[in-house]
Amino acid sequence: MDIEQARIIEGLGVTSNFDVDRERDRRVRFLADYLRSSGAMSYVLGISGGVDSLTAGLLAQEAVQGLRADGYRAEFVAVRLPYGVQLDERDAQASLDAIRPDRVVRINIKPAADATMMEVKLGARDLMPTNTEDFHLGNIKARQRMIVQYAIAGAVGGLVIGTDHAAEALMGFFTKHGDGAADVVPLAGLNKRRVRALAALMGAPKYLVHKVPTADLETNAPLLPDEEAFGVTYEEIDDFLEGRPIADVSRERIFTIFRKSAHKRAPAVGPTL
Question: Annotated catalytic sites, by residue?
Answer without folding.
Answer: 52, 168
